User: What shape does this take?
Amino acid sequence: MKLNLKVRAKNPVFWINLAVSLMGIILAYFGLNWEQMTTWKSITDMLLQAIQNPVVVIAALGCIWNALNDPTTAGLSDSARALNYKKPYK
Assistant: This one.
């Protein structure tokens, strides 16, 4: 499995996609809304509870997998063209 992780790391859309999907999973599991996350302490407490819960961790791994996987290619690797990118393709 070959992935061009350097290029993905340079793409802010990748990070936003990953953060939103992870927070969505965590908030849904705990039955919370964005409006309830009003302090940094409430966010860190929720994240600490999340990493201690195997169901949330497995769901988070699924989110990471979905963010890394390129559904436009067959198999699990990036295409040869994508592996040669030095920065996100425009």
